[in-house]
Automatic annotation (TrEMBL):
Residues 1-71 form the Fibronectin type-III domain. It comes from the Bacteria. Transmembrane segments: none annotated. This is Alpha-mannosidase.
Length: 71
């Protein structure tokens, strides 16, 4: 599953956090991230922060759902 968001001017990377516990998942340089290991038809909360030389921005929350299994 790929989650994408609007790019932030001046950001050099983005930190992606998974779940309501906001567990760090990975740092990416493009405004998108592919998440793996998620069961079909699962609601998922992803939080993203922009990073630059000044530090890390507050997180933005994205709620999404994986597709159900097709019969």
């Amino acid at each position: 599953m790929t989650v994408d968001w609007t790019a932030v001017d001046g950001a050099t990377s983005y930190k992606v956090y998974r779940g309501s516990e906001k567990v760090f998942y990975k740092e990416v340089t493009e405004p998108k991230c592919t998440l793996t290991g998620i069961a079909p038809d699962t609601k998922l909360t992803v939080n993203v922060s922009a990073v630059n030389s000044a530090g890390e921005s507050p997180m933005t929350e994205i709620e999404t759902r994986t597709k159900p299994v097709e019969a």
